[in-house]
């Protein structure tokens, strides 16, 4: 299930307040600034810092690069 573009424009990382990159195939929202990945369950983003996956510096950099390659909003 895809997230609505209107929703994606409004979502930010609850920790850093920076834009989130949406990776639909992986069902996750990623914030390279805070190095956190948030899962999406049944079309609903779980934007809880305590439940987010911590990314390494290298993983966060890879996601940021992919976001640029895919021309994701905010990249």
Task: Please give a handful of descriptors for the protein shown.
about 80 residues; alpha+beta; N-terminal domain of TfIIb; five-stranded antiparallel sheet; 5 strands; about 25% strand
Q: Which structural class best describes the helix and strand composition?
A: alpha+beta
Instruction: List low-confidence stretches.
Output: none
Largest sheet: number of strands, sense, barrel closure? 5 strands, antiparallel
Q: Compute the gyration radius: what is it?
A: 11 Å
User: How helix-rich are the residues, as a percent range?
Assistant: 25-40%
Rounded average pLDDT: 92
CATH architectural type? Single Sheet
CATH domain topology: N-terminal domain of TfIIb
Beta-strand content estimate: 15-25%
Q: Can you identify the CATH class?
A: Mainly Beta
What is the string of SSEs from the N terminus onward?
HEEEEEH
């Amino acid at each position: 299930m895809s997230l609505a573009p209107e929703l994606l424009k409004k979502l930010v990382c609850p920790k850093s307040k920076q834009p989130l990159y949406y990776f639909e195939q992986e069902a996750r929202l990623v914030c390279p600034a805070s190095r956190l990945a948030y899962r999406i369950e049944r079309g609903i983003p779980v934007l809880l810092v305590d439940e987010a996956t911590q990314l390494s510096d290298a993983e966060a950099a890879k996601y940021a690069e992919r976001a640029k390659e895919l021309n994701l909003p905010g990249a």
